[in-house]
Amino acid sequence: GQENFGYDTQFLATKFNTLLNQGFRSFSATGFHTTEREITDVIGYYRISELNNDLGSDDFGEISQVRGVGAFQEYRRNFLDAYIVNAKYHEGRFFDQGKLNWGATVQGENIYDRYKEWQRIDSAGYSLPHRENTLDSVVDGRLYSTPITNLELYSHVSATQVLTNTRFKAFVNWEGKWATDAGIWTYNAGLRSQYAQLNGELRISPRFRLYYKPNQQGRTFTIAAGLYDQYPFYREMRQKDGALNTAVQSQNAIHLTARTDKDFELWGRPFVWSFETYYKDLNRVNLYDVENVRIRYSAQNNAIGRVYGFDSRINGEFVQGTDSWFTFSLFKAEERSVEDFVQGWHPRPSDTRFNFAVYFQDYLPNDPTTRLSLTLMVGGGFPFGPDGPGEGISDPWERVFRSPPYRRADIGFIKVLQGKWTEQFEEIWISAEIFNLLQARNTVSYLWVRDISAAGQYAVPNYMTNRLINLKMHIDL
User: Fold this and answer.
1) Which of these, 90, 259, 285, 439, is most buried using a 10 Å CB contact count?
2) CA 154 to centroid of chain Cα atoms
């Protein structure tokens, strides 16, 4: 079979700026159009067997028992067409004590969605859910058999939706600073608000950041706190059956962060070490799951969550004249139902626990315009669980398994072009990159195969692209 996922996007924007005696004023308008299509026609056959693992057996390595034989069929014809336009006004004023910014935005949204997909499962000659070919009944002592010709599908969704919405946004922000004998303090405080005409939801989000740079060279400290709202777009409103829940509210998070940056020298070259720790308290969580490359939401505000961890990064000139970095993150993301606290905390789909990455650049000793870059990435496995009954996404409270760790190595070659014809450009270069150089088999999702009882499921991994070559040209005017 074949899967055809297509995404086309057009973007148009214009902006007008005016300089004032003590500030600026700007007006911008943007238009965004996207079309998405998900076309799938896939038929698969499977045979699940147990192998004899008795080293002393004459049949070692042979099939000892067949667990399931059958087939499955997936069909999708999903099309989404969205138009988004907005107009934004922004003004800033400069004072001796600091800077004041404010602005407002009005945004219109028009979305058409055709959502049609079904799944049929066949196991050992039986279509699931299974029904007998005839319906027997007894009337006046006589047996009657009525043929049943309908073929039931394991899951089926068919819906068409048209959605229009208008949003109003506004913000005000003040930034000030003061100096002491020990160093310089900078603070930033503001409010953001948004109103959605579709469900009448109004949210106001305060935010604050404090930055301190002591006179001691090369050290800074930052703390920040804020209330952040993630307003639902169309995907967050669409339920599993294709119906829209326009009453779903924005997801809310309280952010607390602390950061420090340290400048230092190594081998006579500059380096920066950054360390940030954070805690995010999530409310009105809209549960989601990742299926292949699709994110599917429950369209309900029926959970809470929390995310906490730290990020550490070192970047600098490991090779003189080039920028390289090392980064390491350790975190935990979990959620729980507000309706059933007995379930306790469970990992979110993004809970990979850790990420490590290295980016290193070098160049030929006699030709600095020819560069080489190496990238190494390692991350923890994502949590996953079996499919729900006919829903196509897993139950968040059954994510008891984890995928293998993610690992990838990339290599890139960059050539900076020089010559008289390049003098009109600030910089121009071409590059060739090989992604996943070692062809690591990274799992992106799992296909769950059911046996005839529909009580047993077997996870079959779907892998990412083994290797990809990318050619690019970059021009700075």
Assistant:
1) 285
2) 28
6: which strand partners?
A: 37
Q: Cβ distance 164 to 170 under 8 Å?
A: no
Q: What is the mean pLDDT of residues 188-203?
A: 95
Residue with tokens 């923890």: 380
Q: Judging by beta carbons within 10 Å of its beta carbon (0-12, 13-18, 19+), is residue 277 exposed, middle or buried?
A: middle
Residue ranges per domain, the chain? 1-126
Q: 386, 397, 367: which is closest to 445 by C-alpha?
A: 386
Tabulate helix, strand, coil % of the chain (nearest 5).
5, 70, 25
Task: Specify the amino acid at residue 28.
Answer: S
- pLDDT, tens digit (0-9, with 9 covering 90-100), for 285-325: 999 888 777 888 989 998 999 999 999 999 998 888 888 99
d(C-alpha 458, C-alpha 47), whole Å? 11
d(CA 99, CA 120) in angstroms, rounded, equals: 61
Task: Return the residue matching tokens 């009954």.
Answer: 389
With beta carbons less than 8 A apart as the criterion, state whether 48 and 451 touch: yes
Q: Which residue do the tokens 């046996």 mark? A: 451
| Residues 199 and 247: beta-carbon distance below 8 Å | yes
Distance CA 289, CA 386 (A): 11
Structure tokens at 157: 């969704």
Environment class of residue 348 by beta-carbon count within 10 Å: exposed (0-12), middle (13-18) or buried (19+)?
buried
Question: Which residues make beta-bridge pairs with 357?
Answer: 327, 377
